[in-house]
Amino acid sequence: MKRRELIKGLGLLPLTGGVIGGVLASQPASATPKQHGAKRDLFEELGVTRVINAGVTMTFLSGSLMMPEVMEAINSTCHDFANMYELQDKVGAKMAEMLQCEAAMVTSGAACALLLGTAAAITGKDAQKIKMIPNLPGPRPEVIMQKSHRYLFDQAITTTGAKITEIEGPEEMDKAFNINTVLALFFNAAEQSSVSREDFVALCKKHNIPSFIDAAADVPPVENLFKYQKMGFDLVTFSGGKMIRGPQSAGLLFGRKDLIEAAKLNHSPHEAPIGRPMKVNKEEMFGMYAALKSYLERDHKKEWNDWLDRIERIRKKLESVPTVTGETYVNPGPANAFPSLYISWDQSKVKIKPTEVQSDLQKGNPSIVANVADKDGAKVLNVGVVLLRPDQVDIVAHRVKEILEKAV
Known about the structure:
The chain is of the alpha/beta class. It folds into two domains: 81-297, 3-Layer(aba) Sandwich (Aspartate Aminotransferase, domain 2), CATH 3.40.640.10; 300-406, Alpha-Beta Complex (Aspartate Aminotransferase, domain 1), CATH 3.90.1150. The protein has helices at residues 3-9, 18-24, 42-46, 68-77, 84-99, 109-123, 127-132, 155-158, 169-176, 197-206, 224-231, 257-265, 282-297, 300-318, 354-363, 393-406; strands spanning 51-53, 103-107, 142-146, 163-167, 181-187, 211-214, 235-239, 251-255, 325-330, 339-344, 367-369, 371-375, 378-384. Helix 10 (197-206) links the parallel strand 5 and strand 6 (211-214). Helix 6 crosses helix 12 and helix 14 packs parallel to helix 16. The longest helix has 19 residues, at 300-318. It starts with a helix and ends with a helix. The model is unreliable at 1-34 (pLDDT under 50).
């Protein structure tokens, strides 16, 4: 029996008694890592600056902060081994139940989901194709995208060896399908669409080609987790490390069962398919499961009101500075559709520009990252509140006020 077959088969064997049970059963508590008395501060030890994120979920800022339930899932599972085939299958099955879809899997972020979904559409379960991708013989597979939907992350599509066919409008899309077409991708956060989501899905179904929607940053609202699959998209991806607040490097891919099963075959722990370098560890799988469960069970109305309360606290403190005014701004989405605070002032009296406040905030320790936005043709400071820890709300308010007061 080959090593990979033995490893995969372990998930089907009982782990009590016998040789396998003796080898793989949980070890006594003494075998777990020992806890040291002194608490290490790794930020201090490595000289890494702590950052307060008064912006949005950006990968370069390490995504979002994981929920306590996620950390509990990670910490409670890190001391035992698991068969990764079995874990991916069982986590995926539970997530599919929660998402009310045929199948689901954990990926290493939404970008990995784009690659795996495309690979699945190209190879299906064909072992030879899985082995050869992205260097398949013959014409390159084609993925249809709207011209206005081209974006940085579509490189994940071409990594599979596929080429992107750009279209504009339903008629052009209808004519673009051919024998080499394997998939059509819709970028949900695109500013403009020449083909509506509904028409996009309908045309894919007409030509029997899978439709895929990238909705990576598009919760809240929570309803979006169900909305696009109900429209008929065959594959959907969301980032796990943004507002779902799972591990930063985790993502969700869900939809049609045959495509998800093919995506798994193109992924780790299978040895050497195109997705092998994008492996997800067991803690991230448990953590992503816990994050999704927590997100779906959360009181989203209360959470939204909490965000508005934070905005009000900061606004009141800042409006004590002459000419400073604050206004709640709700991003219309679909990406980053949550409230933030727009702050403006009379720059002839408070002699500092929003970009300069932004820079001063970032230079502090802890560093505070905020954004600058356009409002009615003028620049304003945009302070995000959704990613702040409760204890950071007043820190941000105090620091912004301090900078503005010095400029009076």
